[in-house]
Amino acid sequence: MKLPDFSVRKPVTITMMILIVVVLGIISLTRMGLDLMPDITFPLVTVIASYEGVSPEDMETLVTRPIERAGASAQGASQTNAFTMEGISGVIIEFEWGTDIDRAAEDIRNHLEMIRYMLPADMDTPQVMRFDPGMMPIAGYGVSADIDPLEMARVMEDEVEPAIEQIDGVAAVYTWGTREREIRVELLPEKMKAYRISAGQVAAAVSAGSPSMPGGRVEEGFREYTLRLTGEYTSVEDIENTAVGFTESGPVFLRDIARVRDTVKEQRALSRINGKEGPIFMAMAESEANPVLVARRIASEVEELKRRLPADIRITSFLDIGEMITRILYVALTTAVTGGLLAVLILFFFLRSVRATLVIAVAIPLAGLATFLPLHAAGFNINFVILIGIALGVGMMVDNAIVVIENAYRHLEITKDPVISSSIGAKEVGMAITASTFTTVAVFLPLLFTRGIVGRIFSQLALTVGSALICSLLVALTMIPMLTSKLMKKESALKKVGWLETLREHYSTSLTYALDHKGRVMITAALIIAAAVAMFPFMSKEYFPTMDQAIMLMEVEGPVGTTLEESSRAAARLEELLEIDEVLSYASFVGMVEGGEIDAAMGTGPSGPHEGSVYINLKDRRDRQRTQEEIVREIQRRLPPLETFEIRTFDVGRAMIAAGGAQEQPLQIDIFGPDLDTLESISGRILEILREIEGIHGVTSTIEEGRPEMVIRVDRKKTAELGIPLGEAASEINTLASGRVAARFREAGREYDINVILEEGSRDNFQKIANLPVFTPDGRDISLIQFASMEEAEGPARLIRENRRRKVMVGADYEGMSLSEAVSAVERGIRQVEVPLGYSIDFGGEAEDMQDMFITLMQLFALALLLVYMVMASQFESFIHPLILMVSIPLAYVGAIILLSLTGTTISMPSAMGGLILFGIIVNNAIVLIDYVNQLRRDRGMGLREAVVEGGKTRLRPILMTATTTTIAMVPVALNRMEGFEIRTSVAQAIIGGLIAGTLLTLFVIPVVYEYIESRREKKLSSG
After folding, report:
1. Which of 229, 446, 566, 618 has a CB 3.0–4.6 Å from the CB of 863, allowing a cystine?
2. Which secondary structure element, helix H or strand E, spans residue 549, and what is its range?
3. Beta strands 280-285 and 137-144: pairing type?
C-alpha cells in the first residue's frame, strides 16, 4: 500500500501521527536557545608565555620561536600566528577543522615539555589554553557615583564583579577605570647616598620586616599549642619604623631615607560612561554558552545590584549583545511569518477555493514545526541562518502541497470521488515531487562536509532547508491527501480563473511558436546567459555585508608612547559629538586593563595608554532616521583634526559573524620577510600608496610607530673594575625607576602592595636617571653614567609572525566602494613596490577570507551540480533528461545577477546562500513539467509535440503557483529594512531574481531543449 493510499484510508492514524510531530516540534522549539549566528568555534590552541622586562625582539628570539616550533610540530597543526610584546609572547596554533582540541592542547603541552630546556630558566612556565581571539564581550555597563574613588573600587571589587562572575555562562569580567590603594615607599636619593643604603636593601628589609610564619609546637599539660611568629605591618608608622641599615650611631629606619605614603597606584587606564568618569565593566561569555540567555542573566543581576547598592550609585548599560541578537532574530521571524501569510493569499488568488487554500496553508506550520525536531536533535540554537532557512522554506514548503492538491482537484473533475481523486492525484505526482525534493536536498549535502566558516554557517542552512523540504514532502503525501479526501466535495472543483485561462492559451500559442523556432530560442537563451556571465566579474564583491545594528565601536589610537591624559583628551573630543538624538548611551575606556596583557599581545585589546575604545549604543533602527553609516560619516565630518590620532570604526555585527582572530581592519596587506628594517621600508612605501588612493582611509601599520625607549649600554670593563655585579645593577635601576612590590599590607581582610620606588621628582627626566646611585660591594656609591651610556631609540612595540615568518600588517578601511573594488585599487598601487628576494606581499583579513570563500563556493557548486544530476538520473532512469533539466540552472542565475546588479547588492556569502538554494528550487519546476510530459507520452500515447504543449499548459498553474509563492514569501525578507536586513536582503534578492527569470525562461527553453533532444533520439532510433 502506497503512502497516499494509507493516508486516505487511515485518517485517524495520520492525524495522531501529525499531532505527535506537532507536540514534539513545539517542545523542541521552546528548548532551543538563541544566538546570532551558528557556533563558529575556531580550532585554536594558544600558548601564553611571560618573561618580565624582556624587550620584544629578545622575547621573540628566546621564547616565541622555540614555542612556534613546538606548536607547528603538533599533529594536525595547519598554521601558527605569534604576537610578541615586551615580556609577553602569544602563539596561536590553528588546527584542521574537526580536530579534537582537548587532545591537541595536550599534544602541545607534551611538545613544550620536550623543548623546555631551550627556554630561559627564570621565565614563567608557558600556559596552554583554548582561547578564541574572536571572543566578543556580550554585555557592558558603566558605574558612576559621586563617591571616593577607593570606595568605588571597593564596591566594584566586593559587590559588582563577584555578582557578575558567578553568573552561569560568564567566562570573565574585565573592569576599567577603578583606582587601587597602594602603600608607596618613595626613596630619597640624597638620603640613600648619605647612609649608603641601596634600593635593593630597602626592598629586602621591607619584605623581611613583615614576617608571618610558623614557629613550631609546644605541649603544656594536656594541651598542644601551635606557635606562629607574626610581625605584619598594621599601620604606615610600622613601615616607617622598619630598620633598613645600621651605622655606628645606631639603626637607620625607613623614615630616615624615604617618605611612606598611603595613596593610590599610578593610573594606567581610565573610563567614562556618558562623558562622566567612572569604572566600566564588560562580561565575556563562555564559548559554548548561549549569549542571549547569559546577557539576560547579567541584566537581571544588574537590576538586583541596583536595588542592593546605595541609590546614588548608577549603573548604565552601553552594550547588550543579547538584546541586539533578539532584535535581529525577531525581525527575521516576523518577515518569515509575513511571507507565509502572503504566500497563502497568493494561493487563494490562484485557486479561488477556500478549502483548497486552507488545506495547503496547514502544511506551512506543520512542516515548520517538524523542522525543529532534527535541529534540536543536532544541538543547534535558533539563529539568523536557521531563521533565513525557515523564511526560505515557507515558500518552498507549500510547493509539494500545491502540486498534489492541484492534481487531486483535476482528477476530481473526472472521477467525482474525493477519496479516489485524492489518492490518484498524490500518487501520480509522487515521483515528481519526490524527485524535486531530493534534488533540492542533494544541493545541500556537500555543505554538511564542508569545513571552515563557510561549512559551519552553510551546514545549518542545509539541515534547516533540507529538513523543511523532507517534512513538506511527507506532509504532502500524507496529510494533504487525507484532508482533501475529507474536505473536497463531489461537485467541487478548482474554479477556472479567467486571467489564468487566458494566460494558458497565450502560453500554449507562444510555446508552439518557440517549438517551431528552436534555433532562435536557444541562441537567445545562450546570449542572455553569456551576458550575465560577462557581468559577473564587474560586480562588487565582499566577504560579508556591513550590518546596521544598534551597537557601534570606534577606536582612538595615537602613536606608541602617548600619555594616558593625551589619549583621554582625544577620546573626549569624540565623545562630545555623541550627544545626538540617535545615541542612547556611550562608554569610553583608554589604556590597558590590569590582566589584559594577553589580549594586547594578540591584538584583541588595547596595548597601552595610547589606545582607547568608545562603545556607542544607538536607538533601534525603527526609532532613528539615519543609518549607522550616515551617523559615522557625520561624526567623522564634524570631528576636528586630532593631530597624530587615528579614529577607526569597527563593524561589531560582522566581527561576531566572521572574526576568527585579532580585530582586523577590512583591508589588510601582509608583508613577509626576515629583516625588520626592510619590512619597515616596504610597509612605508605601501602606506604612501594607500594614502593616495581615493576612498581608502584609516591607513595604519603594525611597525609604522615604534615604542620610544632609552637604551642603557653597560661598559662591562668598567663594571668589572668597579666590582659591580651586572645583574644587581640592573635590578637596582629597575627598582629605582619602575618600583618593586616588596611586601603586602593587610587591613580589614584586604591586601595592598607596598611599592618601593624612587621619589617622582628624582625620576622625571633622563638626566636624573643617569645620575641614579648604584653601590659597589665596598660601599661606594657610583652614578649610573659612570659605567653606562644612555641613548634614545625606538623599538618595535609588537612583533608578529605567521608560520614562523616575520610579518608586518598594513591595514586600511574603505568607503564608497566594495571590498573587491578596494582590493583591485590597492593591487594596482602595490605593483609599483619593489620586493627584494626573500620577501613577499599577500592580502590578508577580509580579502583573504573572501578569496577562500569563493574558492570553497565554486567547489560546492560543482559538487552540487554533480549530485543534482545523479539524483535526477536515478529518478528518471535516464542520462539525458537530467541534462535537459539542468539547463534551468544557468537561466535562473541570469535573473539573480541582473537583480543584484540593479539593486547595487554585492556578491557575498549571504547572496551565495541564495544562489546555492536556487540550484534546487529552479529545477523543481522543470522536473514537474518534464515528468508530466513523459507520463503523457508513456501512459496516454501522445506524440512528442502534443505531449510537450499539453504538459506545459497543464503544469502552468502549479509551476506559476510554486514559483510565485516562494517569490512572494521572499518579498518581506527583501524589503524589510530593520536590523540585519543587509544579510536577509542579499539572500532574498538572489532567490527572487533567479526565480522570476528562471521560471519564465524555463517555461520556454526547457520544452524546446526537450523536444530537440527527444526528436533527434527518435529519428536515430527510427533510422536504426
Report:
1. 446
2. none
3. antiparallel
Q: What is the dihedral of CA 772, 774, 775, 777, to 10 degrees?
A: -170
For 18, the grid coordinates are 501529525
CA-based torsion, 26, 28, 33, 35: positive or negative = negative
Grid cell digits, residue 767? 638626566
| Alpha carbons 182 and 187: distance in angstroms, whole number | 15
Give the integer Cα–Cα distance in Å for 549 and 801: 34
Centroid of chain to Cα 348: 42
Rounded to two decimals, what is the model's pTM?
0.77
| Average of per-residue pLDDT values in the chain | 82
**pLDDT: is 577 or 928 the higher one?**
577
How far apart (Å, rounded) are the C-alpha atoms in residues 710 and 785?
A: 13
420: buried, middle or exposed (CB in 10 Å: 19+, 13-18, 0-12)? middle
- List C-alpha distances in Å: 221 to 2, 115, 216, 224, 671: 96, 57, 17, 8, 79
Flag whether pLDDT at 660 surpasses 50.
no
Q: Kindly give the pairing relationship between strand 170-176 and strand 127-129.
A: unpaired
Which of the pair, 416 or 684, is modelled with greater confidence?
A: 684
Kindly tell me if the per-residue pLDDT of 326 is higher than 60: yes
Cα torsion 539, 544, 550, 556: sign? negative
Cα 991 from Cα 895, distance rounded (Å): 9
Give tens-digit pLDDT for 122-134: 788 888 887 654 4
- Please state which of the ranges 217-226, 265-274, 307-316, 335-344 shows the lowest mean pLDDT: 217-226
Output the pLDDT for position 659. Answer: 46
* Mean pLDDT across 388-396: 70
> Residue 611's beta-bridge partner residues?
557
Place of cell 604576537: 83
Q: What is the rounded CA–CA span in Å between residue 648 and residue 644?
A: 13
**Which set of grid coordinates corresponds to residue 68?**
612556534
DSSP secondary structure of 452-488: HHHHHHHHHHHHHHHHHHHHHHHHHHHHHHHHHHHH-
CB-CB contact of 264 with 183 (8 Å): no
Cβ-count burial 890-928 (b if 16+ within 10 Å, e if not): bbbbbbbbbbbbeeebbbbbbbbbbbbbbbbbbbbbbbb
Region class of 300: left (phi > 0), else alpha (psi between -120 and 50), else beta = alpha
